[in-house]
Write a structure and sequence with these properties.
The complex is a heterodimer of chains A (about 240) and B (about 100). Chain A has about 240 residues and is mainly β. Chain A is built from no helices and 22 strands. Chain A is globular and about 45 Å long. Helices cover about 50% and strands about 20% of the residues of chain B. Chain B has helices at about 10-20, 35-45, 60-70, 85-95, and strands at about 1-5, 25-30, 50, 75-80. In chain B, helix 2 (about 35-45) runs parallel beside helix 3 (about 60-70). Chain B is globular, with a radius of gyration of 12 Å. The chains are: A mainly beta (about 240), B alpha/beta (about 100). The interface between A and B is medium-sized, with 24 and 26 residues.
């Protein structure tokens, strides 16, 4: 029988650094909740708001698959691999930190905030050579799951060092679809960006997170027009 | 005082982690940039937590585990992920729990 967990939006950790407001679905930096460490290999889900013209100065990362999905505005990225890039709403960025990489991220628009999801997934291999990639997401398809990440370099979306699959979805109200998990032992964490959905009958509202595992499929019905992200990850890693 | 050893071959990252640990009241960080360096320090000081950072192979981690068992100090050895402040404190709190 499927097991589930619901993390409502108002139970997330919150941090306000003035230029950065962040909501943490799992323990991060100064927010520590031993009941909210991870969902399988999904370790970080931060919902970030960066004031215009501000950003993260140069800082290191290692041994983590770091995925950024801008929701509004843009972020200018520079790293020690020599990458200089701007990612904006409608794109997805991935960085395998591996043996170590330094990067900075700024909101290049002085007048408007940037809003983005920062997602960290434990890698299935430590100390890999650091790498960076970004692609444009299909933002037009409705009422289907749109794959934006997988473990396979030749599959749709970006790829990471983990048996994980991410799908973005924009559903019209009353649309119902079944999500089929790709791999035995995986679970899925559904994060709602806009609107409300039901996952196997459970109401999940805007910015709520809902985890489901010990199943090979589940049903999602849009209660309203809705946008959401399905993050399928190994539960043991 | 909580003594924490970081083993990481990437010196700038090791120093960043040490700085973040030393910001916490009653926590003290020591860095080791190689297995041999880490073993020397483990025989000199009883650490409360050992963090395995980037660049340390599983083979070296296994050797470290063996030496810690020989010392019979039951120091938790945990893999550090992320290379910065994001996960660091939770990893240490969990190791100390």
């Amino acid at each position: 029988m499927a097991q589930t967990v619901l993390h409502t939006a108002n139970t997330r950790g919150a941090a306000d650094h003035g230029w950065l407001k962040s909501f943490h679905s799992f323990s991060f930096a100064g927010y520590y909740n031993p009941e909210r460490i991870n969902f399988g290999a999904l370790r970080v889900l931060n919902d970030d708001f960066v004031t215009g013209g501000m950003g993260f100065g140069e800082h290191p990362h290692d041994n983590m698959e770091i995925i950024s999905i801008p929701l509004e505005g843009a972020l200018q990225h520079k790293d020690s691999l020599g990458t200089t890039a701007t990612i904006q709403s409608g794109e997805i960025q991935v960085m395998s930190a591996g043996t170590g990489v330094y990067h900075s991220e700024y909101n290049p628009d002085a007048a408007n905030p940037a809003k983005f999801l920062q997602i960290w997934v434990f890698p299935n291999k430590r100390n890999v050579e650091p790498r960076y990639d970004q692609i444009t997401i299909d933002a037009t398809t409705r009422n289907e799951f749109v794959q934006v990440l997988s473990p396979n370099a030749d599959d749709a979306g970006v790829w990471i060092y983990q048996d994980a699959w991410f799908n973005m979805a924009r559903f019209d109200a009353a649309t119902t679809k079944t999500y089929q998990l790709h791999k035995e032992g995986n679970g899925a964490y559904v994060f709602v960006l806009k609107g409300s959905i039901k996952v196997n009958g459970q109401d999940v509202d805007t910015r709520d997170g809902f985890g489901i595992w010990d199943t090979d499929q589940f049903e999602i019905t849009a209660s309203t027009d809705a946008e959401f992200l399905v993050m399928e990850v190994p539960m043991q890693f | 005082m909580i003594n924490i050893l970081i083993i990481c071959t990437n010196q700038p990252i090791a120093e960043t982690i040490a700085r973040l640990i030393d910001k916490m009241e009653d926590w003290h960080a020591t860095t080791a940039l190689s297995l041999n360096d880490a073993l020397e320090r483990c025989y000199a000081i009883k650490f409360d937590v050992i963090l395995i950072g980037s660049g340390i192979s599983q083979e070296h981690e296994d050797v470290l585990n063996l030496h810690i068992q020989k010392l019979n100090v039951q120091t938790p050895i945990v893999k550090h992920y992320g290379g910065g402040s994001g996960l660091l404190y939770a990893e240490i709190y969990q190791a100390l729990a």
